[in-house]
Specification:
With 332 residues, the protein is α+β, with helices and mostly antiparallel strands. It contains 7 helices and 14 strands. The protein is globular. The chain starts with a helix and ends with a strand.
Length: 332
Amino acid sequence: KEWSCKSALLFMIKDEKGNGEGMAKKDTYEARAEALLEPIAAENGCEIYDVEYVKEVMEEEEDGNEDMDSFINQMIYFQDGSSLNINPTYLSFVTPLTYYIDHAFWEEEGVDFYNANVYKNRELSFAKPDEAYAEIKNRLEQWGIEIGEQYEYFGLNHRILEQEEYPIGDEGIYDASLKKEVWNEEDDCYYFYCGQELQRIPIYYYGYGMLRGNHNIGSAIKVKYGKKGFVEVVINRPYIIQDTGETVYAISPEEAVDCLVQKFDNIILTDPVVIDEISLQMLPQRVAQGIYELTPVWIFEGDVYMTFDDGTQDSVRDKYMFDAVTGKEIIL
């Protein structure tokens, strides 16, 4: 199963810029992809579920013209019900166990079923968190994907999963028939949030962002890993990093705070803005098609409060970003 996943990565067929050939091109590329994958699938007991030619907007130019990339989106199903989805900016591998975990682990803070805090930093019997993460790191590097040393994790214990399981059916209501028949130790797995780093500095991911006090559901890489290996892998936009040889020097945290204070000195505030997080990250900024320059940035996060006419108050989470070399604010 693992060998098939790695091989499928080699058979991406990247289309050149669209030239208006329409359906003929679609059929040609789908046929080529299937021809390449069929012998691999047959040899490893896999079934090719679907090969689909997709044209997707990947970037938008400053002048408003859409920069189009065409690519093959590959869907591969395995005999045990696992599936692999690959395109040039995304990879996911999902086993059937994930389906049941999704009914027992709710990671988004604010939803009624949120329970990620129950699993946070919980150690499991089959391995210590750092040991499991080291195995993940080694196996992903074999795929050509390097991840950083920093991570957050949850220990998904089968007993707690069984207690927390609350499947929602197609009608949007509880459906007991969807529950897992038996939970056991073989279902225990760690759930890691991580990403890529450069010199131990996290690479900023254009996702949901940090949730204060809990976890980063917008992580670029999410991995569920159990005694038998991968339970689920989701990888968004991995970067191949090349050293330009240029050395830059970042302003200090204190100087970054001064930049933030100067920003608000020019704003008339009627309600408080409470900043409670500061981090140094590398911001990918697009310089050409498929090429990004990593810029160090200081990022401040906090709550922006608002008072309404009826006297009630609410807040929204916001972030402020400053170039760590020049001190200038960056607006995304």
